[in-house]
Each structure stands twice: as structure tokens, then as C-alpha cells.
Design a protein that fits this description.
7-stranded parallel beta sheet, 606 residues, alpha/beta, 24 helices
Length: 606
């Protein structure tokens, strides 16, 4: 049964309402019951109700929840994303078809065509795409050096009658502004509009909502500005602060009871988020009287952290915790690499659906292993081909004619002698690599052979952050610390790769296992026990967060991670990473609640 606050929201009248729903407060229950109320008590026809959320999966889940509540009458309600709802308008009003939508590949090719005309680097296309998209969603002009590209790109789309993803909102908004008759038709198309996860709106979506609304329509927004974590997609939580000022007679109400988390977790996470300034003030409380557990785990480095967390995870399961109710959360995917290696080695089941690549299938892993394979005696041509000019050595691939090439024969493959000095140097480097430990060998590949410099250049060429590539290389290097010789290291990697391939093939049907999630992908989920990696300055919050609004978004992300937990949280820190000294995050101090040490001694509690 809904509580008093939930019931008041369900039975809200026609005035626009923003319902601020804290973590675990039952917002989905309110939304589906609100739709039922509108149909049964307000006598609205199902097809006059539009429910908007942000992903197709979320829309499907909301529809499924509603159909369980109203199996007979619910099929006519429109459940849609912002983009699918407004694309429907474009198909009805302007005659667009599904095949007029550009694929990502087509959009990329359009931009490359323009870059060729402008005499610019084709490798910059990805970064330019992001800037043009961000500008459209912010409803601002792109950066000055991209203005010419923007106008040519827009003309090219018009000439070929194509729409990209962002046009699905900007085009309907243009029509609303230019065609009063069509605007009036669509404003009167729905009697009720409900928006889930309203904190994730960008300015373009918010403006489209304003254009679609008319007085007398039931407008019902549900969201939580403290859980707005998609700034990189243009989400602006400050739009919720504008809502009561910009929609006539709008009101703000709260769902303040957390039915998920123990009282200590609610109190501690609230202390943290109260440090943000640009937000609605809240007084959240736990429905449960249980105190909950919050522990602090101090670790030396990522390997030490992975070993300690592996033992804690094994102990959690040994003492009866359902592995599906345990989660390991992290700010970015690279952080979980050492733990994934150990979990695979220990045959500890986990579910991790965010990484499409295997644990050791990145091109950086394959490149470094190619060096190590040659250094440990392999004569296979494929390994030479892989690293021949990584970094650039100006060695032609035509030199590699034989299927088998021994290191000692390298200088002799150049019959003309033009490249012999470079080949002799490369042979000496391979022989030296073969005499080193895996850690030292990879360090030499990175620093001595110039592969680190190559990664920085390659990241720039691909429009990627160089730190991401370097982090992958350093993590791989550090995993070699536990091996004395290269052969054992390579053999272990191949076994882990085999186990990882099996695990990934089973991901779609796998039901049991510890959940691994980034902060972003954990949103909307809940677990009995949550372990959070690397709660350190420079990681959480990221070192890229400089401005106050950037720190506030980082704090919101950490808040989302904390509030996934029902009973128990373990907050882990590391003292150093890749010879860099780290300190505990400011967020730990801001929580202000007692955080106990040594979680391993409290396994039977909670």
C-alpha cells in the first residue's frame, strides 16, 4: 500500500507537479499508480496519456509494471523515450520514415566528407561529433572553430533529407515555434504527460516539454536533483529548480522515506549530499530502524585492494550472502581490472555487462603480449606484424615474408642492408626483454622502446584520452609483478582469457554472480552489500573535476553509489597507484558518520 506522501502524489490534481523522489522512496510505484488513477478516477482515455523516460529499456520496464497493475486497460498508454515520442511527431507531420534516421556510421561519414573539404584531420571527427551534439542539446552555438563545420553538416543533412539523433528533438521544437497549427494539434494530443528521471533532462528536452505543455493538462515530473549524474550527456539538474518558476501554478512535493537503506546509510549519505549547494534541500529518513554497517578498508595499492576485497567477497558468500545481492562499484571501468583477474582465477562468479571487450582483449594487451611472445622465443610472423611499427620504426612490412622468423635472423631479412641497423637494434631489444621479469619487460616496452609515446599519439589520433590508454598499459604491467618469468605470465593470461570468454558468453543468461558496476550503471539498482573501490582524491572525485559544479556532479555520483546499499557498505582506499601517492577522498570526511575499520572481523553482522 502507498504511504501518505505517495498517495498524495498519486491523487494530485491538474496543476503541474515536480515530485522530488529520494533514493528507495518508491517513485515507480507512484508513477504506475498515478497512471491508473488518471484513467479510473479522472476518466482519461489511455491513449491520451504520455509517459516519458530516458531509455527504451526503462520505458519497457515501466510499461510492464503498469500492465501488471492494469492488465485490461493499459495497452493504450504511450510509454516512450523523449526521442521516440518526438520522432513520432516527425513521421506524422513531415513524412519522415525510419530509414531517414542516420546511423552513427553515416553521421561519421558525413563529417569526414566535410573535414576533407575543410582540409582538416579525419581523426578529429569523433571529437567534433561530440561538440556539435553537445551544442545542440545545450541550445548554444558550437565552439567558434567548429561553426563552419556545423553549418555545412546541417546543410548536408537537409540536402539529403536525413535526421541525426539530436534532430529528433530540435526539429519538433522548430516546428512548434514556426507552425502554430501543428503546435496546437500536438499540445492538445495528450491530456496527461508524466516524466520519469526528470533530473536527467537537458535544456533541449526541457524546452520541448515546455512547448508541448498547455494549462489544464496534467504535467507530472518525478526525479531527484541529487541523483543527476549524466552531465556528460548534457543533463542539467538546475532545470528542476526552474520548474516551479516557469510552469504556471507548479508545485514541488517530496517522497522522503527511504524503504531501501538502513538508517545509518541514509544518514551518512545525506550528510554527504548536503554539501552540494545547487539543489532542493531535503530531510530524508529511513523506514528501517536497523543501523546498517559502513566500513573503511585501507589498502596499499590496487593489487593489495583486489586481494583484500576478494577475501571479503568469498567470506560474504561463505557466510550465506546471496552473490546476486552483492555489488562492487567503481568510478571508471579501468579500476576493476585487478579484481576481475583475481575473481576469474579464483572461479568466483560475477556478472559484468558493461565491457564489450574481454579482460585481456584490448589492443594494448595484444600488442604488449606480442612483444613478450617474441622475447620468450616465438618465431610466428603474426607477432612481428602486430608490433612492427608500434612505435614507428619506418620498417616496411614487406621485410616480413617468412611465416617463421627467429630473433637472431632479424638483421638478415633485409637483403639490401638499408634497414639492418634498425633490425639489429630490435633484435638486441628482444633478447634483453627475454632476460627480464614480466614487470620489468613491460616497463622497458613502455619506456625504453617508446610504446608509451606511441599510445599517447594513438589516443590523440583516435580522439581518446591518453590517460585511458596509459592506465590500461600500467594495470597490465602491474599484473606482472607476481610472476618471475614471462612464460608463466603469458600462460596465466591465456587461461584467464579462456575463462573470461566463457564468462562473457554466459552473460546473457547468467543469473547468479556478484555484480560489477560503474557508478553510472548502478543507478536504479539495489544490493544488500556494496563495496566501493578507490575512494580517493583524484579518482572519486576525478582529478578532472575542477569547477564547483563538476565537484557537485562527482559528489552526486558517489551519493548514488552509497544509496544502492541496503545493509552494508565497504569503502576502500589505496595509498598509491603507479608510483602516485593518493589520499582518502574528501567525500569520506563529508559523510560525518562513524565508519568502522576492519570489515573482515564483522562478517556475521547485518
Amino acid at each position: 500500500m502507498p504511504d501518505v506522501s505517495q498517495q498524495l502524489a498519486i491523487e494530485w490534481g491538474k496543476k503541474p507537479l515536480l515530485l522530488i523522489a529520494g533514493p528507495g522512496s518508491g517513485k515507480t510505484t507512484v508513477l504506475v499508480n498515478r497512471i491508473k488513477y488518471l484513467m479510473e478516477e479522472s476518466c482519461l482515455a489511455a491513449d491520451r496519456i504520455l509517459v516519458i523516460t530516458f531509455t527504451r529499456e526503462a520505458a519497457r520496464q515501466m510499461q510492464d509494471r503498469f500492465l501488471l497493475l492494469c492488465p485490461q486497460d493499459g495497452n493504450g498508454v504511450h510509454f516512450a523515450t523523449f526521442h521516440s515520442a518526438f520522432f513520432h511527431m516527425l513521421t506524422e507531420n513531415l513524412g519522415y520514415r525510419q530509414d531517414d534516421l542516420m546511423t552513427d556510421k553515416m553521421r561519421h561519414e558525413f563529417l569526414k566528407e566535410i573535414l576533407r573539404e575543410e582540409g582538416l584531420r579525419l581523426e578529429d571527427a569523433e571529437g567534433i561529433e561530440k561538440e556539435l551534439s553537445a551544442a545542440k542539446n545545450r541550445m548554444t552555438k558550437p565552439k567558434e572553430n567548429y561553426v563552419s563545420i556545423y553549418h555545412k553538416y546541417e546543410k548536408l543533412k537537409r540536402d539529403r533529407r536525413k535526421l541525426d539523433f539530436d534532430d529528433l528533438l530540435s526539429e519538433p521544437l522548430r516546428i512548434f515555434q514556426e507552425d502554430a497549427e501543428k503546435a496546437a494539434f500536438w499540445r492538445n494530443r495528450f491530456d496527461a504527460i508524466l516524466v520519469d528521471e526528470a533530473q536527467d533532462m537537458n535544456l533541449l528536452q526541457y524546452s520541448m516539454l515546455q512547448a508541448l505543455y498547455h494549462p489544464g493538462q496534467s504535467l507530472f515530473l518525478v526525479g531527484d536533483d541529487d541523483q543527476s549524474i549524466y552531465g556528460f550527456r548534457g543533463a542539467e539538474p538546475g532545470l528542476l529548480l526552474r520548474f516551479p518558476k516557469e510552469f504556471q501554478d507548479a508545485q514541488v512535493r517530496y517522497l522522503s522515506t527511504n524503504y531501501r537503506s538502513a538508517a545509518g546509510i541514509v544518514a551518512s549519505s545525506s550528510q554527504l549530499i548536503n554539501h552540494n549547494q545547487n539543489r532542493y534541500p531535503k530531510n530524508l529518513r529511513a523506514h528501517s530502524d536497523a543501523a546498517g554497517e559502513i566500513y573503511y578498508l585501507a589498502c596499499q595499492d590496487p593489487d593489495d585492494e583486489a586481494e583484500k576485497l576478494l577475501r571479503l567477497l568469498q567470506e560474504e558468500i561463505r557466510t550465506g550472502r546471496d552473490p546476486n545481492r552483492i555489488a562492487v562499484l567503481f568510478r571508471n571501468r579501468r579500476q576493476v581490472y585487478p579484481l576481475r583477474r583475481l575473481m576469474l582465477g579464483a572461479d568466483l562468479d560475477f556478472v559484468y555487462r558493461e565491457d564489450n571487450n574481454g579482460l585481456l582483449d584490448h589492443f594494448i594487451h595484444r600488442d604488449i603480449e606480442a612483444y613478450l611472445m617474441i622475447a620468450s622465443g616465438s618465431c610466428d610472423r603474426k607477432y612481428y606484424l602486430r608490433i612492427w611499427n608500434r612505435p614507428e620504426r619506418n620498417l616496411p612490412r614487406e621485410l616480413l615474408m617468412d611465416e617463421k622468423i627467429a630473433v637472431d635472423r632479424l638483421p638478415s631479412i633485409d637483403s639490401h642492408g638499408s634497414y639492418r641497423d634498425r633490425l639489429q637494434l630490435l633484435a638486441r631489444q628482444f633478447r634483453l626483454l627475454g632476460s627480464l621479469s614480466p614487470y620489468a619487460a613491460i616497463q622497458m616496452i613502455l619506456k625504453g622502446l617508446g610504446y608509451e609515446r606511441y599510445l599517447c599519439d594513438e589516443a590523440y589520433r583516435r580522439g581518446m584520452e591518453k590517460e585511458e590508454y596509459l592506465e590500461i598499459a600500467y594495470r597490465f604491467r602491474d599484473s606482472g609483478k607476481h610472476f618471475k618469468n614471462i612464460s608463466d605470465f603469458l600462460r596465466t593470461n591465456e587461461e584467464l582469457r579462456r575463462k573470461d570468454a566463457i564468462s562473457r558468453r554466459e552473460q546473457t543468461r547468467k543469473k547468479n554472480g556478484i555484480r560489477l558496476h560503474t557508478f553510472h550503471s548502478s543507478k536504479g539498482l539495489e544490493f544488500d552489500s556494496v563495496m566501493i573501490l578507490d575512494v580517493c582524491e583524484g579518482i572519486t572525485p576525478t582529478k578532472k573535476a575542477i569547477k564547483p559544479e563538476e565537484i557537485e556532479e562527482e559528489r552526486r555520483m558517489f551519493y548514488v553509489a552509497l544509496t544502492r546499499a541496503k545493509k552494508k557498505i565497504i569503502l576502500s582506499t589505496i595509498e598509491r597507484d603507479h608510483n602516485q601517492t593518493l589520499s582518502p577522498s574528501r567525500f569520506l570526511r563529508e559523510m560525518k558518520e562513524e565508519i568502522r575499520a576492519d570489515p573482515g572481523s564483522h562478517q556475521n553482522e547485518g
